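Sorry, explain these tokens?

___
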Amino acid sequence: MPDTATQQAAAVPVVVPALQQWHAAGGSFTLEDGFTVVWHHADLASTAQDLVDEIKELTGLDGTARASDGQPGAINLALDPALEFPAAPAATACEAHEIEVGAGVVIGAHGKQGVYWGTRSLLQMLAVSVVLPRGTAVDWPNYPVRGFMLDVGRRFSRPEYLADLIRYMSWFKLNTFMVHLNDNEIAKDTGRGWGQAQHAFRLASEHPALAGLAAEDGSYRRAEWDALEDLAARHQVLLVPEIDVPAHSRPLIAWRPELGLNGGDSDMLDLSKPETTELVKDLFTEFVPWFRSPMVNFGADEYSKDHHTEYRDFFNAISAHLQELGKTPVAWGSLTAMANGAPDPGAGFDRAPIICSWNNDWHSGRAAVADGYQVVNMNDDMLYIVPFADYYHGGPLDARALFDSWEPHVFGPGQDLEPGHPLLLGAASALWNDLVLRDYDEHTMHAMIEPAFGVLAQKMWRGAVAGLDFEDFAENAKAVSGWPGRGFLK
């Protein structure tokens, strides 16, 4: 019977998502106690120290990190502009990297982001065995946006959980964490009027003009948000915030009733009043300095179809304002429905926003790219969890169905784009907390997120792998499920 080293040397390393390329060299390398991680550029110093700490957590091996003095370490992190990744899409070349396992390990990339993703692959390999097969991995993502969205507007999540989600996402090389920061109970579904509907705005500014807006049952102060931004940057994850207007805006209307549609008996802002648009502009002016992501979502979904012109003017005004503030606007796909039967749904709308295509009737991925928009696939039928609901997925997503038949270009019957469409940025799944009166917490939510998370990462990063079936993939995912750094979820 072959020994462990021989078995390891013959195997393709177990990594989720799977490596794009692996070129075996024969033999093996064993990481031993007292190892060193050498960084060859000052930008990689924190990544090197984090890697030492994470290896200790996963394997029990002690090591140290140091700057290069000309002598290699057991693991070497390098920025190498000469590396070539001809198969990587131009949009993701900054994330491409190479891992060479020989007498030691060398992780190289053009930039820090690529090196960091290489350390995630190495950690997963080491989680399976400290005996590594020799060879070279060349890896890159197929799409630049690989995401997850959490609704904290309807149900507050503690900052400690958001921190664990950042670590969890980065373990699977997901890089876009969308945080839905305001919303309200869906009053029509409960039989309660808008005046009784629960609602919340989750950012707490100290500006006197915004006194009374932040939710009392949980909101994020600037220092807490900054801490999350710091952690996200360290893990190569973008925090993409969303302030959802002009619908889903009950917290704003409860705060400023005179700006609500139907005399305030609504969750929609009254866009006929110029002061409504000015208030929303002021909100973004206040909070955009908190946000380090180049993208900011302003919602723009599920507004009354009877107010097409006012909606269009508002859409364009907020899109322009975010651009003036230095951000790329993001919006939920709505233009087909908001046209209310008009022959050209996108006529007169700014084309700068990135569209999150969430529903094929409201604005499908195919319709959005036809209108000239960049698109993120967030299709509700396939990618939405609503805990305990009897619509979408009341529990975990269907991991097997996603594995067998979904990729980021798949939007549903008759709506798919071509794989790698130039306007398709990627995809994101979402968890919506519509049922505000149900008794559950972050642990419950996470138990619903986990079962399909690795599959989604696989499909967003590489896609289907010839010869890899769902059962084998599930075994691989189980082998690397012990992600490092968890705090709240321990």
Observations:
- Residues 1-10 have pLDDT under 50 and may be disordered.
- The chain is about 30% helix and 20% strand.
- The chain has two domains: 4-139, 145-479.
